[in-house]
Amino acid sequence: MKTSDFNYDLPKELIAQTPIEERDHSRLMVVDRKSGGLSHEHFYEITKHLKKGDCLVINDTRVLPARLYGIKEGGGAHVEVLLLKNISGDDWECIVYPGRRLKEGAKITFGDGLLEGEIISVLDTGNRVIRFKYDGIFLELLERVGTMPLPPYITERLEDGERYQTVYSRENGSAAAPTAGLHFTKELLDKIGGMGVDIVHITLHVGLGTFRPVKEEEITDHVMHTEHYTVTADAASRINAAKDRGGRVIAVGTTSCRTLETVGDERGRVKSGSGDTSIFIYPGYRFKVLDGLITNFHLPESTLIMLVSAFSSREHILNAYKVAVEEKYRFFSFGDAMLLI
Question: Taking the chain, what is the end-to-end CA distance rounded to the nearest angstrom?
Answer without folding.
Answer: 25
